[in-house]
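Worked example

This section walks through a single chain of length 424. The input is the sequence exactly as stored; nothing has been trimmed or padded.
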Amino acid sequence: MKQIFLIAILIGAGVGLSAQSIDKAKDLLKANKLADAKTEIDKVLAVDKNQKMQEAWYYKAKIYIAIAGNEQLKATVPDAYGQSFDALKKYLELDDKKIYLLLMQDQYKPINDIYQGYFQRGAANYNTGKYTEALSDFKGALNAIGYMGDKGWIKKMLDTTSILYAGISAEKANNRDEAAFYYKELVDSGVTKINGSEMTEIYKWLVDYYDKKGDKANESKYLAMGKAKYPKDLFWFETELDNARKSGNKDDLFAKYEEITTAMPDSSIYFFNYGLELYQYASDTSSGKRPANADDLIAKAQKKLSRSLELKPDYPNSALVLGQISYNAGVDLQQQAKAIKGPKPEDVKKRTDLRAAANKKFDEAIPYFEKVDQDLSAKGKLKMQDKQALKDAYDLLITIYETKGQKDKATAYTDKFNNVDKTH
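Given that input, the structure is written out below as tokens.
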């Protein structure tokens, strides 16, 4: 009996000592003696039999949270928020009745402090360019708020700010795959604004990401989503056009231009690009011959380019290309005339008619080239593209007037051509 009684007393004394140690750790925490509080609570939990003491784990969580937020001590325990979160989860795990009395008494402050601590540290690391560390912190914040949602302490929701900055931090840390994970979560949720800022670039980023991955299904998915959310942004049209060009299917390309010019009937640049690509395809002889419907395509190109010039009369490239189309048609007619040999009356007539038709085409081209001259010659310093357009217009005017035998006009435009670099 005496031996059994002695053992019982010793066990009771051990429990009492642990409780005293926890009380001491609590007092030290209250007195803001955090290093001593940490030593005391670590000592309690180093004893195997104390591993099931809920209160010990709870106060470990609180002490480590305090250390993580202390400027002087936080470097001594770099993973203090992580350890506090694990300790809090252990406390909850040991509460069989799911009452969480200590946490309720603190109005759930420890878990909120963990979330806020992770987030604020993430923001600080992000602002100082420590992107890998910032990513880890924002992930910690997301884990904490996700845990609160899973437990039913708060309404489940997306912490869009933490997700966004986790993604940006991952991107800046050159971890594109992880960035895509977070950006995808935002976009899939349908979010378009965070703290008043539009998320357009995130949608674009995903389109580019999946394009580089060669994942056409996801590229198309996020392009369609971005286009639906931000229909006025030209990025979607440009990407669709690029994809159509890469496919090599001209019917798809021109169908896409039809869609764009219908959606944007006042966009001179898309009418110009459409007309230019129509003409380039119609006049392409790399396969040994032009497309069978080349004439129809050229006529359509002229209509699109004319519309571009109507919308933006001072855009010299529209006038230049329209002039080049007529000029090239004239050159083709000249070559056809040269190909007809022989003195027969019918041959002579064909040559004469073709030369007349060529001259008519040259006459059609002249006003367009003169318009380029009018638009650009009066300006001072020109951009390289405009300077080249002006030179091209003068060069073709010189050729036309030399062909016509009008040397005075050819000489006048030769002088203008020679002075472009000096004047502009």
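What to look for: The first strand starts at residue 193 and ends at 194.
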